[in-house]
Amino acid sequence: MKKQDLAKAKLPDSPGVYFFRDYAENILYIGKATSLRDRVASYFAKDLQTTRGGKIVNMVIVADHVTYEVTGSVMEALLLENYLIKKHQPIFNTKEKDNKSYSCIVITKEDFPRVLIMRVRDYEKRIASKDFKVDKVYGPFTSSAAIRDVMKIIRKIFSYRDKCEVNQGKLCFNAQIGLCPGICSGLISKEEYKKTIKAIKNLFEGKGQSLKSSLLKDMNSYSKRQEFEKAMKIRNILWSLNHIRDVSLIKNEDIIEWKDKDFRIEAYDVAHISGSSRVGVMTVVEGGVKNTDEYRKFKLKENINDDYAGIYELLKRRFTHKEWRMPDLIVFDGGIGQKNVGDKVLASMNVLIPTCSVVKDNKHKPKDIISSYPQIEKYKKYIILANQEAHRFAISYHKQKREKGFLK
Description:
41% of the residues lie in helices and 20% in strands. By secondary structure, the chain is of the alpha+beta class. It folds into 3 domains: 91 residues, GIY-YIG endonuclease (3-Layer(aba) Sandwich); 103 residues, no CATH class; 145 residues, UvrC, RNAse H endonuclease domain (Nucleotidyltransferase, domain 5, 2-Layer Sandwich). Strands 7, 8, 9, 10, 11, 12 and 13 form a 7-stranded mixed sheet that branches. It has a 3-stranded antiparallel sheet with strand order 2-1-3. Helix 10 runs antiparallel to helix 11 and helix 13 runs parallel beside helix 14.
């Protein structure tokens, strides 16, 4: 996608959620914005490679166009982004695998549900308990500070129960300051409180506009029945939803996501002896560190004495796994021939990922890297690490397969 294509999107200067899509309308990346126009324009800055890193550059290259959805506030944008990422699982919205330190919002399954902010690790421990029943879980949210700020805003608009006991006989502290509807003293019915919980769910599920329409309908209904106190309460809620001052909620976590700590390099290699015991492997280096849990082995078709055919089969099989995280850089073992074959296979599958090939000397030591990727020097030592791992892993797997064949 190019900067001149932005004019077609007609992005407004409003908060909302934007979608980078490919030519087939598949969602590549979802982001939130205080200003959709300014945020999306920032992806086409001249210093994009320096400020955002290789992953975001790849995403923009693969993208064909941008669509968007306007929200009533930045808070709604943040919540809608999280909901849609979980729903669509875009390949470029990869977060760190260990999300147990992140926070989630839990709504319990009770007559008067509690709304709780919990660490993912704490939620996983608690869910094993029989006395802890859950209705809904939202998240994980990478910024605990941001989601706590969101909940402070929501609780001022829709007061809810978190820790107090039902009908305990006296108002809890939160009820005294207006943050709990008085469940502790029987000040609200089960039916009325159910409406509050539904409203909170609507916010977390990106249904802010639907929520406002429903509230407006209720307000008019109360007015017609001359229940003016209830009508005024809803009017105040609507006013609050339309005047949320929440620009500070959007932080730089979407930029942090593109830092080098998450840069994924995949290296491939093929091993065989005159076409027998053919195997292929994939090794992974993430953030400069080997990720052996992501290594993969492939048994290749027998009696084919052709390394290029091995690369073809290996790539075809690897990229049928849409559930695996996409790499930011692909490494082949060999020269320009291996790289050209690999590039053609990737192009045939519409996989637009930069590639390189590690050339070896007569002692099988790396002597050159063939690539047009602009940041090749920056990742050179990690490329060599991934390549060496692929060669080691392929030889080990080949020997294992050959020995099994010999025993048979």
